[in-house]
Design brief:
The protein has one domain: DHBP synthase. The protein is about 25% helix and about 20% strand. The protein is built from six helices and nine strands; from the N terminus they run H-E-E-H-E-H-E-H-E-H-E-H-E-E-E. A nine-stranded mixed sheet has the order 7-1-2-6-3-5-4-8-9. The longest helix is centred in the N-terminal third of the chain and has 11 residues. The protein is globular, with a radius of gyration of 15 Å. The protein starts with a helix and ends in a 6-residue tail after the last strand. The model has no long low-confidence stretch (mean pLDDT about 95).
Length: about 190
């Protein structure tokens, strides 16, 4: 399966996988073609950015402007891995096609073994990602739902091997004047 995942991703492919919250769609951040496909698959508004996810926070550091503010560092220590997406200032390495030209990028470390294993096996260990569903529809929560919703539109749906999504979306938080601001209330209460 690892060889297949790498083959798909290196050829501008899109994969679907389980996370701790809901099922995700993802591709390599370096593949503008695959990112555009994700927008097409979902019928997603081009003004809605994707996020970057990995199995370890240090894999995301190159995509973020340094230094990371102290309040963000506290939340990272407390909630990563977990159901928290942090919106932070992006570095020049983060392509505008992922962030819809915003100066920030959302980052998350899901608490899910299958997702972590995928990241550990791919180049760069980072995926540009969003939920596995058509825009405006509920996200896939099971392997069967992922197959039904987008299985014929993606290159590979990876089995969950019994690691199920909990079903509640991640909390999305950013920062204004050094203090957390909640953009979407999800599983984690800050």
């Amino acid at each position: 399966m690892i060889e297949k995942i790498n083959e798909v991703l290196k050829n501008d492919g899109v994969i679907a996988y389980v996370t701790d919250t809901v099922w995700g769609l993802g591709c390599l951040p370096s593949s503008e073609k695959a990112v555009r496909r994700i927008y097409e698959i979902k019928h997603r508004d081009g003004n809605k950015p994707l996020i970057l996810m990995s199995d370890e926070f240090y894999n995301l550091l190159d995509y973020l402007k340094q230094p990371i503010e102290k309040e963000a560092q506290k939340l990272i220590k407390k909630y990563f891995p977990g159901a928290l997406t942090l919106v932070l200032d992006k570095s020049e390495r983060t392509p505008d096609y992922i962030t819809s030209s915003f100066p920030t990028v959302g980052v998350r470390i899901p608490d899910n073994k299958i997702f972590a294993d995928i990241c550990k096996s791919i180049e760069g260990r980072v995926l540009a990602t969003t939920s596995a569903n058509l825009s405006g529809e509920p996200p896939a929560l099971t392997y069967e739902e992922a197959l039904n919703y987008i299985g014929d539109k993606v290159d590979l749906v990876i089995p969950d091997y019994g690691y199920e999504a909990k079903g509640k979306a991640s909390t999305v938080a950013g920062f204004k004047d050094g203090q957390p601001v909640i953009f979407r209330q999800g599983e984690i209460i800050i």
